[in-house]
Amino acid sequence: MVFRTLLAVFATVAAAQGQSCVFPFTYHGGTFNSCTSVDSDVAWCSTDAVYVGNYVDCDERYCTFPFTYHGMTFTTCTMYDDDRPWCSISPQYGSDHVYCSDGAAVLSVDAEVDKPAGCHFPFEYNGVTHTTCTMADSSDPWCSLDQVFDGDWAWCTEGDCVFPFEYANKTYDSCTTDDNDGFAWCSMTPLFEDNWVYCDSGGCGGALTDRQGRVESPNYPVGYPDNQDCKWLLQPRGGHATISFGDFNLEASGSLFTTCPFDYVQVTALDGTDTGQRCGTDTPANVSSHTDITVHFVTDASINSRGFYFDYSVLGGAPGTQACGGEVTGNSGEVASSGFPAHYDNNVDCTWTLPPRDGTTGVTVTFTEFMLEHVEEHELGQYTGCIYDFVEIFDGPNRLGRWCGDKGPDPVTSANGLKVRFKTDAHTVDSGFKFSYQYST
């Protein structure tokens, strides 16, 4: 894996030796309360609150947070029903758990008090009152669970949609799959304004709208039906999405030379991850990504088996926490779009500020990587046709230009301070960008 190769080259491994995990820790804008396999083929954790290259590998049987036990939700190790701190290794406790080491940074706490599941309307966020779901500081519609937002929130669902709604000169009284790759959706305004959410398909496949859960194949474990073609979609929404298969038993291929010609599961992500077609007892590998993950399940017209289940979770991505925008720190450093070099998110609008600083004469911004949504040849570079995904640079109040495609800005220096704005639309993404900054003294 690229992560572990880079980590071996650049990480201060010696500093990590003998150290314990620090929970929670931040990595690439995501917050982790347990070991993770993000960007790695081995579970790992950071030994610093914000990952700076120091890490340790975790035992393969590591805690999963949050987990549910007897209807209570735990975000750290607990001593509930035991005299030693323990944790579950799956989101829904079955019978499999591990004991937490006495020296671990995670301590036992009481179970969380569950918040109401529904949105609280109206609610106040950052001084603004919202009477419906909002996309403020988020790539997807969300709501507060309290009258004044205090950190407890939920993604909005089809229950927050408006019916009927109008889209493309048609009126809809229920969810539709039009123009959305077969996934059901609905509008949150009477006239569609790009403010929409996925709907629960109620059958095989569909968008996974909860932040964690378990999916079972139809009729599991009795046996799945014939002629199934189902897709489940899991979106990270500014965080990290993970899918992990438990039981897995499909019709075997019956041949050493043919890959799953009958029934199969295939997991793919927009960052290029692809498990290939899996059947028999050849369980798909765990997949973690900050891009959309799709699980595709196909069966033929005869012979079936027990089926499968997989657990999923989305960590990070809370409103206002995406690693996008803000004032840079230090007199030099690097900034990358969310998820780089994997795909950035839709509906992003954020600005990095590089203000003038005492003791410095100016700041220089240099783009080292740049690949935004593909546009026609005549639209590349600073052409005003950059209306989809683009980067803008401001020198004080003056806009220096707008860039898109694969033609990024030349190095820019200013004594007045600079601002770099990144905006994306609701469709089509690419790998993003990276720029370095340096203050002169």
From TrEMBL:
Keyword Signal annotated: yes
Domain of life, source organism: Eukaryota
Swiss-Prot/TrEMBL keywords: Disulfide bond, Glycoprotein, Repeat, Signal
Signal peptide location: 1-18
Xref: SUPFAM superfamilies: Kringle-like, Spermadhesin, CUB domain
Gene3D superfamilies: Fibronectin, type II, collagen-binding (2.10.10.10), Spermadhesin, CUB domain (2.60.120.290)
Pfam families linked: CUB (PF00431), fn2 (PF00040)
Domain CUB, first and last residues per copy: 204-315, 324-440
Domain Fibronectin type-II, residue spans: 14-58, 59-100, 112-156, 157-199
InterPro entries according to UniProt: CUB_dom, FN_type2_dom, FN_type2_sf, Kringle-like, Sperma_CUB_dom_sf
Protein name per its UniProtKB record: CUBN protein
Lineage: Eukaryota, Metazoa, Chordata, Cephalochordata, Leptocardii
